[in-house]
Task: inverse folding
């Protein structure tokens, strides 16, 4: 494999080195790709050294474990918020914006694993909250489950470009805008909880076929700026006369984060810069192994979007 990553979301974390180090396919380290250090652009702890020091074993492999359903509320017939008792340590890791987990109903085989964004975290209770919408067989079984869900995680790359948006002193003065539609509201809640109180934040929300009640119930109260509702489908057709464009022009935002389907991301991109966006690629293993999320750019480079941490210039979703 000669694909090259400009950044890996797991690099330097407690889950690095990962499975890709074992198979000599590391996305960052040349030596762990059977080559040398010539093209190393990584500025953190040496991944190769960590791998050798750790006895050529991967660090903290993520494994499925059973998790009790402690809360379930339906919004209509096809959307529910589910609370899962994961323990405090796991919940703490889920706090980071862009976190997602794989869940499946009790007794289901592993290929029923479904990636779901973390919406809310209660660290004291050790419970995480997920919004699940029935789409097909896998999500149908999840919504039918009453007691236990198998859970695997935490995975970090639910929002592409998130590393540049969150964290650090320098982000305190930044002005952020989240545009969220439909299920994109779930990761927006987690991101808003993180940003709220740390920096300026406005939100533009479109329920987009989900539930007005759900949006109202979970719209964060820590928002420092405006929270506006919009019909994005209608609004975006107005182009430079759209309410969204006018809001962005007047707001002079440092970060614009769009959490919606690729259709809306691409339409919004025609009007303005986007700094972070939903990772809507087909996520299957989340580990960079299966290749379900692979995409090849115009230069023939392969990117695994479950690991790829940034938005590259000229790289379209
Ligand atoms: S989801 Fe399997 S490689 Fe990315």
Result:
């Amino acid at each position: 494999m000669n694909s090259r990553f400009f950044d890996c979301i797991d690099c330097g974390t407690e889950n690095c080195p990962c499975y890709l180090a074992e198979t000599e396919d590391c996305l960052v380290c040349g030596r762990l790709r059977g080559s040398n250090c010539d093209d190393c652009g990584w500025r953190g702890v040496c991944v190769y050294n960590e791998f050798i020091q750790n006895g050529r074993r991967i660090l903290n492999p993520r494994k499925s474990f059973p998790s009790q359903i402690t809360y379930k509320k339906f919004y209509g017939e096809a959307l529910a918020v589910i609370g899962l008792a994961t323990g405090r340590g796991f919940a703490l890791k889920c706090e980071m914006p862009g976190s997602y987990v794989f869940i499946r109903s009790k007794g289901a085989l592993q290929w029923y694993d479904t990636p779901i964004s973390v919406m809310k975290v209660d660290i004291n209770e050790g419970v995480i909250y997920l919004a699940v919408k029935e789409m097909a067989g896998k999500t149908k079984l999840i919504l039918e489950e009453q007691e236990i869900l198998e859970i695997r995680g935490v995975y970090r790359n639910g929002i592409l470009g998130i590393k540049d948006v969150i964290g650090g002193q320098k982000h305190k003065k930044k002005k952020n805008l989240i545009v969220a539609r439909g299920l994109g509201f779930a990761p927006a809640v987690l991101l808003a909880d993180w940003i709220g109180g740390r920096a300026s934040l406005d939100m533009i929300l479109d329920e987009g076929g989900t539930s007005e009640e759900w949006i109202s119930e979970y719209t964060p109260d820590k928002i420092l700026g405006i929270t506006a509702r919009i019909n994005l489908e209608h609004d975006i057709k107005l182009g430079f006369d759209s309410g969204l464009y006018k809001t962005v022009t007047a707001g002079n935002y440092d970060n614009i984060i769009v959490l919606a389907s690729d259709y809306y991301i691409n339409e919004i991109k025609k009007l303005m810069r986007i700094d972070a966006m939903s990772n809507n690629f087909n996520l299957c293993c989340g580990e960079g192994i299966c290749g379900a999320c692979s995409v090849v750019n115009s230069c023939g480079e392969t990117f695994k979007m479950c690991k790829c941490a940034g938005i590259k210039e000229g790289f379209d979703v």
Notes: Residues 159-280 form a domain with the Rossmann fold fold (CATH 3.40.50.80).
